[in-house]
Fold this sequence. Notes:
By secondary structure, the chain is an all-alpha fold. It has 2 domains: 3-66, no CATH class; 73-228, no CATH class. It has 11 helices and no strands. This is CidA-associated membrane protein CidB. It comes from plant metagenome. It is found in: Membrane. The chain crosses the membrane at residues 6-25, 37-54, 60-80, 92-115, 144-164, 205-228.
Amino acid sequence: MRTELAYVVWxxxxxxxxxxxxHFYRRAPSWWNSPxxxxxxxxxxxxxxxxTRYSEYMQGSQWLLAMIGPVTVAFALPVYEQRALxxxxxxxxxxxxxxxxxxxxxxxxxxxxxxxLPSDLQRSLLPRSIATPFALPVSSRVGGVPELTAVxxxxxxxxxxxxxxxxxxxxxLRSSLARGALLGMGAxxxxxxxxxxxxxxxxxIAGLVMILAGLVNVSITPIAVMLLL
Length: 229
């Protein structure tokens, strides 16, 4: 595909496919028809049929990637609305985020070691448990491949949302604080969206936990690389 067309066609195709898949997801919500799963699969099929390389796709879609940061910052508004609840429980939230981030990094290392993955794949896997705006620069910083990290982040989010729904149903989590933190820590952006489907308060807590986890992992992931890899 010509470069001039790539700047127009791929961003439009990405947004259009996402809108269509989200429409079907709202009518029949399930993990297997999530827009975050179907959109890249459909785009990959289209790109393969047109013999389009990843670099050509990104030529026109960089601005979509750049929007991830501002969208993440927008989570600050619902977090601010729940500031009284957060003020009362911030020690528990912070302790949970630090513990969860440490366990996530260590479990990623264990999985990578068990699979005997090459060094660059191991480094790409370590930031899988944080939101994309944090995960991509962390991956670059520790010598990973950001494109692979993005895939790991999406898969972690989808799996975390599915497991989180099961745990939310069967574990005695009576407070919205615990339920929101579970989804925000375990499934980052996907978890925040799912938490907001349950209640605004849960979504706000999930958004705060997601942001805090990203900030904590920016610090601990390079340390984990030095100690474990």
